[in-house]
Amino acid sequence: MSDTSAILPIETPLNAVGATYDLDQPLELDGGQVLHGVRIAYETYGTLNEARDNAILVCHATTGDQHLATPHPITGKPGWWSRMVGPGLPIDTDRFYVICPNVLGSCMGTTGPGSLAPDGLPYGPRFPVITIRDMVRAHVLLLKALGVENLYAVIGGSMGGMQALSLSVHWPDLARRVLVLASTAAMPVQNIAFQELGRQAIMADPEWQGGAYHGTGKSPDAGLAVARMAAHITYLSEATLSEKFGRRLQNGQAKSFGFGADFQVESYLRYQGESFTGRFDANSYLYITKAMSYFDLAEGHGEDDHPGRLAEAFKGVHSRFCLVSFDTDWLYPTSESRTIAHALNAAGAPVSFMELSAPFGHDSFLLDVPALDRVIEGFLLR
Amino acid sequence: MSDTSAILPIETPLNAVGATYDLDQPLELDGGQVLHGVRIAYETYGTLNEARDNAILVCHATTGDQHLATPHPITGKPGWWSRMVGPGLPIDTDRFYVICPNVLGSCMGTTGPGSLAPDGLPYGPRFPVITIRDMVRAHVLLLKALGVENLYAVIGGSMGGMQALSLSVHWPDLARRVLVLASTAAMPVQNIAFQELGRQAIMADPEWQGGAYHGTGKSPDAGLAVARMAAHITYLSEATLSEKFGRRLQNGQAKSFGFGADFQVESYLRYQGESFTGRFDANSYLYITKAMSYFDLAEGHGEDDHPGRLAEAFKGVHSRFCLVSFDTDWLYPTSESRTIAHALNAAGAPVSFMELSAPFGHDSFLLDVPALDRVIEGFLLR
Asked: What is the mean pLDDT of chain A?
């Protein structure tokens, strides 16, 4: 683990895997609290050029991480966007310097509720509730430490798209291009409902212990698994579920007439839930989903329900935008991207927007969709 | 509580509220087990005419009950279909003799996992896994005891529609008309996934105690509340959620920056979950949703994935059918009803099928949709 806090920007390590940076200042949060001693875990790929104008910030999704194109340290699986980021790939590391930080509140090395507070004890429920903008605030300080004063592009899907949008509005001079995939400018109410369901499942687990389970040797795995199952269903399309599992039974044609997993989809969901608990922290799940539920880019810009207020939020942006939605994504449907496109148009910002056809539901932005590769490659061309 | 087991059919009580009937024979189940001493709780409205040809069986949905048009004994709320069933209403009790039994496996008086087994102890997890056809099997025995040899119609929405379809196929001479609302001939995989999520939430609750909690003074309320929240989200449309709650906060404009219920939709879901535990049994929820997940009317009729097999299942039906779907119902979408209509057509059975426009999602069949009133009234006219 290298610590860049002692490294001058220009000496930024290349292809830094497993790097961390300790903020040299307290982090002031939207909720009014201040976090001291924040550490950010991140990875970089490629080289920052002399003009320092080839940096791309990639923002990860809810339960994602900084392991963009290197194997996940726990699961051993390839980095979550290794099909997109690398030499000669759409986000070409021969050309770009790509930075991916783990978000504030997470559990993959960046400070979160499972980290030790300055008093030496885990934060647990003492960790402050954060916002998407707070996550970006930490990213911006990391960029500065890495010698990156402006970004060729900021890119993100789902919650990563929220970060990209927040950056474009609140740090309008930072990114020249903003690429937002399968995301929204304000969390839709149905998603708030599903996220609340997940949080309730975690908080209903007695092992949650009011959030103070870190260091007790116990954790609300059962509740977290249920939360993950709920989220996982929403990430997939009905078409994917039908094709992948249909009503096929686990053991040939025999129903068990019991409460074991009869259907393949039941077994799959149980596996998804259980395996998730081995790589993610329940409190991080609470804090990150809360930040997403809170996300409303138009907040503070005029009256509620006033259709023009999102355009107001975009009034000062200086970036070019590219928005992508997927036709089978029912969690962040095309209408959400269209709302953003309309508001950007109204604010006079350059934007291209397209709905891609892909069968994988919300997960499409992570999977093999060649049309997406072409969109990203084209948007980054010049 | 009157017990009709001692009453001759022709002396059937009129408007029997809170009636029960104890089967005078063991109930053989699809799973191969046999239930002894089954009690069925039911209500009736109107009068069986001398020709005994005006009886309508109404089948309730997952967590519904026999309190069709009388107040619920626990919540005090009006019967769940009191807008549809009564004198002069679409299901006109001046004309029809309407019977609504509580399904096998439930907890409102009919034998279920919370009932006492013949050994005097609660069934709990010893209760056998049942099917939709098992529920109908019990209904048919009740009908016989009530002197009803054939039905003017069988009517049901959601799980009630599954019962109506099962009755039409497995007791083809019983019902002259079959009215199926917002239902399916085979539980779609996404619904199996959501139901499995709910079951996992219940079984993850330590108070579930392997299902043997009846009589312990404890029950898996937290898990059941989470299961209910999940189901409730799927019953509503995005439009209903947006209109009813949107992103409106509980306390004006102030976010709590905590994990209380910030948004109105969060508070609403918590209330739905918590209040449900006061009126429903967690094990009943497990058994009934399992029966629904198992439901596949085409089972046993030819190969899997063979498009003609549902038509095979309908080959021997003798009823007229009416199918209704709702355009905002994403849990049992119109495509499910269309599949049934096509199969009935292929089997040469008379069927009318329509998709109604209503904003309430899956719950539309329970709510104020005047077009539905007209469909039901018309279908029952002659």
From this structure: 93
B191-291 has which fold?
Answer: Rna Polymerase Sigma Factor; Chain: A (1.10.1740)
Residues of chain B in contact with residue A189, where contact means CB-CB under 8 angstroms, are 238, 241-242, 245-247, 263, 265
From A257, A2, A250, A273, select the one nearest A145 (Cα to Cα).
A2
From A237, A329, A363, A364, active-site residue: A329
Q: Which residue of chain B is at minimal alpha-carbon distance from A283?
A: B259
Interchain pair B241, A189: CB under 8 A: yes
Tens digits of per-residue pLDDT, A14-31? 568 789 999 999 999 999
Kindly report the nearest CA distance between residue A299 and chain B, in angstroms.
10
Mean pLDDT over the full length of chain B: 93
Confidence category of residue A3, pLDDT binned at 50, 70, 90: very low
Task: Report the chain B residue with the minimal C-alpha distance to residue A289.
Answer: B259
Question: Within its chain, how far is the Cα of B376 from the centroid?
Answer: 18
Q: What is the mean pLDDT of residues A67-73?
A: 92
Note the ipTM here.
0.91
Q: Does A255 touch chain B (CB under 8 A)?
A: yes
B346: buried, middle or exposed (CB in 10 Å: 19+, 13-18, 0-12)?
A: middle
pLDDT at B90: 97
Lowest mean pLDDT: which of A21-35, A63-77, A165-179? A63-77
The verdict on B60 touching A (C-beta cutoff 8 Å) is: no
A154 membership: H or E segment, kind and range: strand A153-157
Say which CATH superfamily domain A4-188+295-381 falls into.
Alpha/Beta hydrolase fold, catalytic domain (3.40.50.1820)
B221-235 helix and B264-277 helix, angle to the nearest 10 degrees: 130
Q: Which chain B residues are Cβ-neighbours of A199 within 8 angstroms?
A: 259
Residues 260-319 of B with CB under 8 A from A: 261-263, 265-266, 269-270, 273, 286, 290, 293-294, 296, 304-305
* DSSP-H helix ranges across chain B: 132-145, 159-170, 189-204, 221-235, 238-244, 264-277, 282-294, 309-313, 334-346, 370-381
Q: Is B53 a catalytic residue?
A: no
Query: What pLDDT, on a 0 to 100 scale, did the predictor assign at position B329?
Result: 96
Asked whether the beta carbons of residue B206 and residue A201 sit closer than 8 angstroms, the reply is no
Rounded to a whole number of angstroms, the distance between the first and last alpha carbons of chain A is 35
Q: Could you please report the per-residue DSSP string of B271-311? A: HHHHHHHTT--HHHHHHHHHHHHH-BTTTTSSSTT-TTHHH
Catalytic site residue B92?
no
Domain boundaries, chain B: 4-188+295-381, 191-291
Q: Which of B115, B158, B166, B319 is catalytic?
A: B158
Question: How far, in Å, are A89, A379, B67, B152, B342 from residue A374 at the CA level?
Answer: 10, 8, 59, 61, 41
Residue B101 has what pLDDT? 98
Residue B127 has pLDDT above 60, yes or no: yes
Closest CA of chain B from A300, distance in Å: 10
Give the whole-angstrom CA distance, residue B359 versus residue B76.
26
B149-166 confidence digits (pLDDT tens): 999 999 999 999 999 999
How buried is A381 (Cβ within 10 angstroms: 0-12 exposed, 13-18 middle, 19+ buried)? exposed
List all residues of chain B from 143 to 172 with a beta carbon under 8 Å from chain A.
none
Is B362 an active-site residue?
yes
pLDDT band of A308, cuts 50, 70, 90:
low
